[in-house]
Write a structure and sequence with these properties.
98 residues; mainly alpha; 70% helix
Amino acid sequence: MTDHDNESSELKLSDQNINNQKVLTPEQEALQQLAMQLHRPPQSLAAFSHLSVDQLNWLTARVELICKREDARLRDELNQAIPKFLQPLFLRRLRNPS
């Protein structure tokens, strides 16, 4: 096999890889981003498929903001409820309950 044959076969493989990849519309990409933010499969958010990209981006931003606020609230409550020196043990136990 010559160098030219190797190059042409590599180009064919890369073309096949490009053709095998699904091209997502901006709406599908926004819906996938929202699904990732919610830790849900994209199919479970089919009811939101009628929303525009701007609406999905707004919703994703709101979910992110609410998650950050909830994390901060839970951290504050943890700081108030459990002494600082016990927090690492408590958190480790929550992450690995076995």
